[in-house]
Design a protein that fits this description.
Elements: E1 5-9, H1 13-25, E2 29-33, H2 36-45, E3 50-54, H3 62-71, E4 78-82, H4 87-95, E5 100-103, H5 108-126, E6 131-134, E7 137-140, E8 145-148, E9 151-153, H6 157-168, E10 173-175, H7 176-184, H8 194-205, H9 209-212, E11 213-216, E12 220-223
Length: 229
């Protein structure tokens, strides 16, 4: 692959340098920031394909950095890192617009795989020149926009990809394993709430999905065959 730029925002200097070495070894160009304010400035000014963002940062937390990026309509994929390993931390990170979440400790290979998955899915979403519809929902894959009854709806990169996958596979029961594999690009690991949080956020942003996107207990989700009105 080409020299794709990735921003790593991590205050633990040794870890940040290790992450940079690991990503550089895989062909990425990597910039580092060691606090939230510097990270936010670089993220807004730089042309990054992905951002690796720690939650616990000096001056400005990773949560706030991600919130301000999304408020500025910067939709670069964000992988959040945390020393915590609780479901509420994961849900909080995804709720404010992160695309993926990785709890410390983790292997460098796992982080690289997650970054590659973010980039692969984002690139795939840019290639089709088609429109998907579901009742009042209109999804333009070429322009990367979503409208609900004519109203523009802002989705994160992963929310967009999940909605696209659901619309393309309507009527099928989709397990969390399948969704994590096909949308996120990695195997399901027990206990993660990634899929559930993203489904909840889609329902909140697109009311037409509240009844049409059904939870299949202890398995996954199914989007109705018939369009809603």
């Amino acid at each position: 692959m080409g020299r794709v730029k990735v921003l790593v925002v991590e205050d633990e200097v040794r870890l940040a340098q290790a992450l940079r070495r690991g990503l550089q070894a895989e062909g990425f160009t990597v910039d580092l920031a060691h606090d939230g304010e510097d990270g936010l400035h670089l993220a807004l000014e730089g042309d990054y394909a992905a951002i690796v963002l720690d939650i616990m940062l000096p001056r400005l937390s990773g949560y706030r950095v991600c919130q301000q990026l999304r408020a500025a309509e910067n939709w670069v994929p964000v992988l959040m890192l945390s020393a915590k390993d609780g479901e509420y931390d994961e849900a909080d990170g995804l709720d404010i617009g992160a695309d993926d979440y990785l709890a410390k400790p983790f292997s460098p290979n796992e982080l690289v795989a997650r970054v590659r998955a973010l980039l692969r899915r984002s690139k795939r979403a840019e290639t089709p020149a088609a429109t998907l519809t579901f009742g009042p929902i209109v999804m333009d894959l070429a322009r990367h926009t979503v409208a609900d009854a004519g109203r523009d709806v802002k989705l994160t990169a992963k929310e967009f990809l999940l909605l696209q996958y659901l619309l393309e596979h309507r009527g099928r029961v989709l397990s969390r394993d399948v969704l994590l594999g096909d949308v996120w690009g990695y195997r399901y690991t027990g206990g993660t709430r990634t899929v559930d949080v993203h489904v909840r956020r889609l329902r909140e942003k697109l009311p037409a999905l509240v009844d049409a996107l059904v939870t299949v207990k202890q398995f996954g989700y199914k989007l109705a065959d018939n369009e809603v009105t």
